Structure formats: structure tokens, C-alpha cells
Amino acid sequence: MPSLSVGIVGLPNVGKSTLFNALLKRQVAFVANYPFATIEPNVGIVDVPDERIELLCQYVRTDNPRTDKQIPEKVVPSMIKFFDIAGLVRGASKGEGLGNEFLGHIRDVSAIAHVIREFKDENVVRSGSVDPKSDVEVVNTELILSDLQILDKFLQRVEKDAKVTKSKELLKKLEVGKKIREHLEKGELASKFLFTEDEKESIKDFNLITLKPIIYVLNEGEEELKDKIVQKGILDSGDSIVICAKIEAELAEFDEIERKKYLQELGVTETGLDKLIKKCYDLLDLQSYFTMGPKEVHSWTIKKGWKAPQAAGEIHTDFERGFISAEVVGFNDLKSVESLKKAKEKGLVRLEGKNYTMKDGDIVEFNFSV
User: Fold this and answer.
1) DSSP assignment, residue 151?
2) N or C of the chain: less Cβ packing under 10 Å?
3) Contact 368/332 with Cβ under 8 angstroms?
4) HSE-CB for 215 with a 13 A CA cutoff
């Protein structure tokens, strides 16, 4: 399965653990009003919100009308893993606070959700937090300094090996690594570097934190949330959203009817958490396809651009190895008739081969032989 892990990071007392608890819909992270309350990263696996799943379940029930058992018997949504990581402080790259542990945990995730404090609460200590833009700069600086340390060690090793082996691949890594080092030394994240396709291939094992995609999560106070929701790019970034972690924690305790009513009062259509999860999913360049039947409705996570055999391999390696064809119907086509049986009767289900590029929302049945 494509990597689906997001680290929730930020300065101490910005609302990371409150947000994490809301994500899990239960109080599992240790929240306290002082820095370093979270020492080891708490881990939680959360459903990716997708209204299409319930519709697919309805269509399965339409095609399989029976009352002796639940139809479908099982529903499996796509999932994303979140890590609640200890608060970062200035000097973390030199070991301040829980610096080395913190930075090590971030290297293990595939994307970063950087929570930034905007709420005003005199009862919650501001530990290093000043304002959104300066907070971002503090964290980014520590990530860059940490990457420079890692990169210097890596380049020393590569340069030594390249002298001995004369390997073109190692020489290429060395060349690209030096370019990135110059870029980082200017205070820029590695993700902002314009790589060629060859360079992208040669940096895969660099494991730099600043290469990871980042979403900025501005944690607003309750009173200010309504005003901020309509603002665009508070941090001048397309990958930023505004939430109120405190409200999200309250919403997580409500049932579905209460939640919808509260959202209507706020004047929004979905929770901040749903927006965050979907944004992370997009940030990792992921999409979903579905398999459906009376036994199971299942959402499968794949990278955008994957071919049908690769997607089949997510179900089982035999499906990819012995791939013959795929019977595919687009979600909107299926929705127009509300039945997979009718979709087949109307010729909406297509037979696709090995070169078919999967699309988000495809409903598929794979044919294979091993």
C-alpha cells in the first residue's frame, strides 16, 4: 500500500494533541498544559471520509435484496495513519528539548501537518510561539538545520565511495546533494527545489525531512473561527487550512445528527478534521478505487497515475502477477443507474487492459490467472 502516514508537528502548546484526540474520536493522547507532555509519538489510524462508500453500500443492497443478514457484510474505508509528535523548540537540531527524538520521528512519516497557534488563551502557556509566520520560520529553520546535518554526513560517505568505485550513480547523487545543500543553506525547504526527473530519482534515499509535503493547520480560537474560515492563504500557502481544534474535539463527541446541527450553526458543510484528512490524502498524491459486492465494499488506496495491474496488486500480488483484464465502471456512471447490475445491462461497465490508467472513484472487478 502507498505510504499513508502524517506527523502532526509544531511548537509546544499549539493544540497538536487536542487535534490528535479529535482525529481518533477518543481521548488517547496525553494533553497537558506544559511543554513536552507528549514524549513518544501517539499513533492513530483514521478513516478517510468518503461519501461514495455509503452510496455503494446502497447499490449493493439494491442488487442483493435479502433480510437474513447484513448487506454488505463488511465495509472497509481507506485509512490514513497520524502520529502525534512531541513539541519542537528552537535549537532542536542541536538537541534542545526532545530535539533528536522529535526529528527522528518526523523522518518516518510521509507528510507533515504543521499545527500553528492562532488562538488566544491566557491559561495556556505560549512556549516559544509568537505569531503564525514566525512560528513557521522557527520550525522550518530547525528542520533545515537537521537536514543539513544529515546531508553532510551522507555526502561525505557518498564522496568517499565515489572516489573508490567511480560509479556514475554515486557521482550523480553527489552532484545533486551539493545543489540541495546550497539551497538549504539559503534557508529554503528542499521541497521548493526544482528537480529534474533524473535528480528526483537520485535523491530517493536522502530521507530529508524538508522534502516531505507539508500542510499548515492554523489552530484558531472559537470566536474567531467563523471570520477566518472565508479567508484565503493566511500563510500564503495553498496547502493550508484553518480549524479550531477545541471545536473539533467537541464535535468528535457528538453523534451524527448533533454534529450536522452544530456544523449548520457554524455555517460550514464539513468538519475541519474531514478537510484535514482529505487534504493530506491529496497532498500525498493518492486516490481511491472500489471493489463492491454483498460480502464487502472496500476502498483501496493507490497513487495517482497507477495502471490497472498495479492497482490489482493492492488486493493481492497474484492479481498483479496474473492480471488479464479489469471490468471498470466510473462512480458517476454507476450513480446514474444506482445498480451495478443495471450498469452492466446498459453497457456502462468497460473491459480495460494492462495499460489502463486508474481514475479516482473507479469500481473494478479484476480478472486474473496464476
Assistant:
1) H
2) C
3) no
4) 24
